[in-house]
Batch of 4 targets.
Target 1
Amino acid sequence: MRIFAQSTWMDFFSSDKVLGILGGGQLGKMLLYTTRQWDVTTYVMDPNPQAPARLACNRFVTGDLMDFDQVYQFGKNVDVLTIEIENVNVEALKKLAQEGVKVYPQPEVLEIIQNKCRQKNFYKKHGLPTAPFYEFSSVEQLKEAVAKGQVSFPFVWKSAAMGYDGYGVAIVRSNEDLDTLKEGACMAEEYVPFDKELAVIVCRNPHGQITTYPVVEMEFHPTANQVEYVLCPARISVEDAQAARKVAMKASEAFGHVGLLAVELFLTKEGEIIINEVAPRPHNSGHYTLEASYTSQFEQHLRALLDLPLGQTDSKVSAVMVNLVGKAGHQGAVYYKNIDQIMTLEGVNPHIYGKRETRPFRKMGHVTIVHPKLETARTLAAQVKETVEVISK
Ligand code: ADP
């Protein structure tokens, strides 16, 4: 084992040093479980004064994450700065990094990832496997390419900027579908008739130590384009799992990021592993680690940010995570109907993020079910999904 004798960051424990987090949603909130456990001082900034992370941080600032001055002023008062959402002002992060603030993930990494076209070009440049794509500066240009037969149906339209939870993504099968696309720079990606969607969470510390978590499998809601279940381990062969971890490691090495990198992958029907996209932060596909792993993704992220040795990523038990999302047709003050009923089930761990208002398909919480047998956990997860309803009062 390598010992980091020279580490300078140990003094975050019970000290005046500050970790800043841009974004105060559920990812920030769960990161704060570990900062509280370790008595690490944290400041959080989020535009919403009611953001889930407001209660567990040491200082909460209301601010616009895309505004240069507000991000810069916030960052000036912290020693290490991280994000829990990609859409933040990168120019401010660059200036802070120049002035000596440790910004992780590095602004240059974030800049690539913020723009889907730039991200895809990065994979191409580094020989990382990904689906072929064409870039366009407008939907008009895309339509012309379709008319000329350069792009054919079906394909996947992806908006270059500001996509989130499938909102900037659409499968285009006809000319009518083309008319529904949002204006702006975009790409047309080859439609991948994949067998499974997988994810591997990688973590890298400033010394270049890299760990990968076991491969997880994501099951999607058939219409909302959102993850419904995450299963760990993925129900794939040992060879496919090894290949997935290898591709994820290679992506991590290419980015040279510090902190977590969640690598979303497709396992194609031909048995190939290709990258869909990455996120340089804690990820929905790693929530299960809170109950099932030796080291949670949040603790691992914090270890990397504070320049500490990384923890063990193995699972202690199988797990299935179910997202609790707002029911269609419900908007307003939230009510978790029947949540008491699932508490009698074996291995059930509910997480409620603390968002007061529900909206259709808004991520409001999740439930992790742990069990020695993955299939039993999956059955229980379906029961949880059918029982709990996230509705308005
Ligand atoms: P977001 O950034 O909004 O999460 P993604 O790029 O992950 O968007 O796409 C959302 C979902 O759309 C994916 O999880 C997958 O189910 C589907 N998808 C994305 N790209 C493709 C593709 N090339 N072929 C088939 N399905 C795709």
Target 2
Amino acid sequence: MDKISVIVPCFNEEEVLPLFFEEIVKVISSMKECVFEVLFVNDGSSDGTLKVLKEFSKKDDRMKFISFSRNFGKEAAIYAGLKEATGDFVVLTDADLQDPPTLIPEMYRSLTEGEVDCVATRRVTRKGEPVLRSFFARMFYRIINRLAKINIVDGARDFRMMKRSMVNAILEVSEVNRFSKGIFSWVGFETKWIPYENVNRAAGKTKWSFFSLLQYSIEGIVGYSTMPLTFAALLGILFCFISLILICVIIVRTLVWGDSTAGWPSLACIIFFIGGIQLFCIGILGEYLAKTYLETKKRPIYVVKEKSE
Ligand code: UDP
Ligand code: MG
């Protein structure tokens, strides 16, 4: 009998967890051909999430939990879940029912019948999402696919089922700056995509602000592409070239017409402009340096405070 592990990162989800529990129990009870473990990762919630999870594990011995010592982020929670999971197949899903658990049987069938190693989902609509957020999300996918060697499908969710071989490959990628969508693509393997319509959260609030999403997308780009560094170097070359031409123009003009270049305002503008470009490029360099710095510390990705037996 195949064992399926379902990993659920939870951060302040006490409101939605009872609804999720009901749904997931319905689904896993209907799949008689498999045994299940549902592994909740409490990512340092400050509400009653841990209490709810303890009740689940008392009620149903398929429900397990790990609880972090503080909030380490969804990426860390995913990594912890993958590490603890013992199933032949592993499902990643959010707790908020935006990832319909009813797709799990279909995913399992695709994996056992087909040749693929992973069945993942992507949203084809972004209904219910702020317009500006959708716009920037689309831009992000366009930029990262252009800059990085990996390919990330627009609207790809973390919601997916993977074979053990792929999970083991992901666990080998033990970097601290984790960007799962990138890692899933980087490890390779055959992925089948199931498109579905966006569903709104069943309860509770989203944990992502615009700023945290922006940071996350920079993490993704810096983590998978060194193109911005090349871009900075090219910009430097371009500016050297332009300044050479300008110097020639000024020399010739002075020799032929004898007039000196007028005014300091133009000079001030140029200094500001070049200064801005330089700071921008140093900023790019800094991003990479910062990531290297954090990576060399080799801090653990998460710290566990408590676990179910
Ligand atoms: N989450 C987490 N740690 C965090 C933020 C989020 O474990 O620091 C979990 C959260 O509980 C949820 C999932 O990640 O199960 C997705 O979060 P959310 O629904 O807020 O993101 P969105 O669907 O809005 O992108
Ligand atoms: Mg959500």
Target 3
Amino acid sequence: MNKATRKAIIAGNWKMNMTPSEATAAVKKTAELVAGKDGCEIVLCVPFVDIAAAVEAAKGTNVKIGAQNVHFEAKGAFTGEISASMLTECGVEYVIIGHSERRQYFGETDETVNKRTKAALAAGLKVLLCLGEVKEERLAGITDEIVAMQTKLDLAGISAEDMKNVIIAYEPVWAIGTGLTATPEQADETCGVIRATIAKLYGAEVAEATTIQYGGSMNDANAAELLSKYNVDGGLIGGASLVPEKFDAIVTAAN
Ligand code: 13P
């Protein structure tokens, strides 16, 4: 396995945007534009209430639907939470776990990220596992240590076999929604640190087979250069995924 044989994944993270009717229109438009662009896997991660509409609109297309979080327990008294089996029964194939906005605003920790990842994998979901350093950590020169630590904690107890269903999304927090993008060199280098950490945990073969995305102000103008880097196997796209034409341009760059 190497960049040429690893599965590239372009995923949109709609965050808290789009009502169900807006989701139907946006998924249909996106699917129309990306039809036949099968050089990468294409995923849209939508709000929970949009899942039914999005799955219906994506039927028969090459667009897969993902969720933006999942709880680690199977069922019970967890008001406001959603279980992995609820997602799979609704036709969800992917789930984002550990997004920096969940860590920052909703108290997610590496421990809960790890538990959610295990529950999602056990239910047959593919996990887009987000990690990345904050600005102060990059300025302090400890980015490599931070992403290595997050990689180890978030993947604790997850088997090499399960790694086939884990995608890492490297999202430097300072680049999310700010218009600041990591340079292609920074993205490549830090995705490389994550890959080296996976190699330490699982061996070189698993590390070379793992898809590692970059996320943080990726758009139609900068995607091609970021995606050309050896360790960058795709993108997790926020703002630009809300505009089907922009998202399609990123998919085209990945193809
Ligand atoms: P932006 O592309 O809007 O910076 O968001 C990135 C992100 O957080 C994707 O999960």
Target 4
Amino acid sequence: MFFKDKGVYRQNRMVIALGSDHAGFYLKEKIKAYLSNKGFEAKDFGTDSDKPCDYPDYAKQVAGAILKEKYHFGILICGTGIGMSIAANRIPGIRAALCYTEEFAHLARKHNWANILCLSGRFLKEKDACKIVDAFLSSQPEDRHRMRIEKLG
Ligand code: RB5
């Protein structure tokens, strides 16, 4: 598949960094399998079970990997997606968007140039979450929003 990377269309595999806490663990596993079936490369930063853990630890790891430009996008999942989005957005250069619908995911990429998608493990059905992931990965940033993105820093 083609994807746009820094304004250039590339054909190689898109690489995605995944992370969750215990409340997002099961959805993360489903999305990992879904991405792999679609031919994406997914690197799982944990967590590895539903044993309680702290979402900021995983948000920091995934955000750090995105900033090192090792991955094209991140997907972070906690119970609501709120904690992950707060934690990731504290890191300069990260634009994490909590999306509950496909339309939000399209707009998060087109208008906000989001580089991390945050999802709810407790309030989203797997089928809907996969559609949101598809919408996020298939949308491109619109250049008319560049000035606003630059103002975000
Ligand atoms: C864990 O119980 C829950 O608080 C966490 O997954 C998340 O929803 C926080 O925003």
